[in-house]
Input
Amino acid sequence: MLGLGVTQEVCHLLGRVTYQNRPFVVMHFTPLFPHVANNSFPSSLTAFAAVAAVVGVLAWRRVGMVFVVGLVVVGFGCVYVGVHYPSDVIVGAGVGVVSGWVTWVITGLPPVARVFSRLERRLPRGGRRRVPPRVAARAAS
Output
């Protein structure tokens, strides 16, 4: 969640500094996905997908690669439907990757990790499912 918040703020700041009309506005066509004609740069959606991809890869390695595939699909989709330029998607992905990695590193630092550990111990444990032990299958007689 922290990575997504950082990403949102960085994208918002970049959007205030640099304004770029969306492709469907400049090229006068109707996008495949309806969208407001506001700032195109950078792609926040791609940035959020990149945060998920970084966290997924850092946490689960090979399984996290599914998130990377999702990032590529999201980025391609944003360009394909006509709401972003490739540069918007590339910069958005870069913002997301950096934000995700930085927040991963910061939350792993010992002082921060201790705070999260204390918070986690205070959470109720009632929501966890207990898995019953396996029973050996009986042979049919």
